[in-house]
Amino acid sequence: MANIKSQKKRALTNAKKNLKNNSEKSQLKTAIKKVNAAVAANDKEAAIQKFNEANSLLDKAATSHLKHKNYVARQKARLAKAVASLG
Question: Which pTM does this prediction carry?
Fold first, then answer.
């Protein structure tokens, strides 16, 4: 543990940020899995709805630097291709 006051505070803020980032990454992964599950079930309406939710989360992840912009673009393209294959 740090001895300097500012470093003690930094350790606390890092822990809070880590929890927030892990939560957001988990939400993102879950949203992507839901789109893929809807595509696998051939449910076009659900797939489109889940795709829109996943797109929103992906955009937020890119703007907050949680995920790289190229990763976000690749995932959006893959999901769009999967949803388009339904109909």
Answer: 0.88
